[in-house]
């Protein structure tokens, strides 16, 4: 058997159960070692069908899918949108930003180039000159990945109750 075929495509509403399952697979190993309560909160409050339904109205969602004998399986998700359309408040930001809100690859498929392919696709969809993203303080694996892709740290947003957010930016052209 050869290497599995990995395809990128825009997400559809029917993918939402696969996003929820992806969150349950990738969020605990990523954030559990940083703050277990935060990882649980992410799954309970942010990786839910309702939140994805709302998010798909304002943000672009891209998936990577592996095709095999059992059919196609969603193994990664990237989302991109504008800060001004987020339901969250960002008092430290003046103006708008294009933001990659999510880039998550199933742990069984890390290191196979899927994150790189999704990021390149996201970058090709940026209308302005810059792409922004947030990384949770302590997520060193993601920091390393983003640095290797040309993102630089711009600011840290402290949170008294949860890990800080670190904003990174890449100038694209
Ligand atoms: C971070 C993540 C998206 C990367 O996706 P991936 O598919 O595993 O990454 P790739 O296989 O495309 O790796 C691509 C490159 O990044 C490099 N890289 C990966 N981790 C790295 C690290 N910690 N430091 C430096 N380089 C790193 C690899 O060496 C590889 O380089 P190459 O293309 O020159 O060989 C993925 O590991 C993931 O989903 N992590 C958990 C969830 C997460 O933290 N998401 C980010 C939230 S902000």
UniProtKB/TrEMBL annotation:
GO terms for molecular function: acyltransferase activity, transferring groups other than amino-acyl groups. CDD domains: NAT_SF. It holds the Pfam family Acetyltransf_1. Keywords: Acyltransferase, Transferase. Residues 6-173 form the N-acetyltransferase domain. It comes from the Bacteria. InterPro entries: Acyl_CoA_acyltransferase (IPR016181), Bact_Acetyltransf (IPR050832), GNAT_dom (IPR000182). PANTHER family: AMINOALKYLPHOSPHONATE N-ACETYLTRANSFERASE-RELATED-RELATED. This is N-acetyltransferase.
């Amino acid at each position: 058997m050869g290497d599995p075929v990995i395809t990128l495509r825009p997400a559809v509403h029917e993918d939402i159960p696969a996003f929820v399952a992806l969150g349950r697979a990738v969020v605990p190993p990523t954030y559990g070692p940083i703050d277990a309560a935060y990882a649980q909160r992410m799954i309970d409050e942010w990786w839910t069908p309702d939140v994805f339904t709302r998010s798909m109205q304002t943000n672009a969602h891209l998936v990577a899918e592996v095709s095999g004998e059992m059919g196609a399986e969603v193994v990664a998700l990237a989302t991109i949108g504008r800060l001004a359309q987020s339901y969250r408040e960002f008092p430290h930001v003046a103006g708008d930003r294009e933001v990659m809100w999510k880039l998550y690859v199933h742990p069984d498929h890390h290191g196979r180039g899927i994150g790189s392919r999704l990021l390149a696709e996201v970058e090709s969809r940026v209308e302005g000159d810059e792409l922004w993203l947030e990384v949770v303080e302590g997520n060193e694996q993601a920091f390393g990945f983003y640095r290797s892709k040309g993102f630089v740290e711009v600011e840290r947003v402290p949170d008294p109750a949860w890990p800080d957010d670190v904003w990174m930016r890449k100038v694209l052209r």
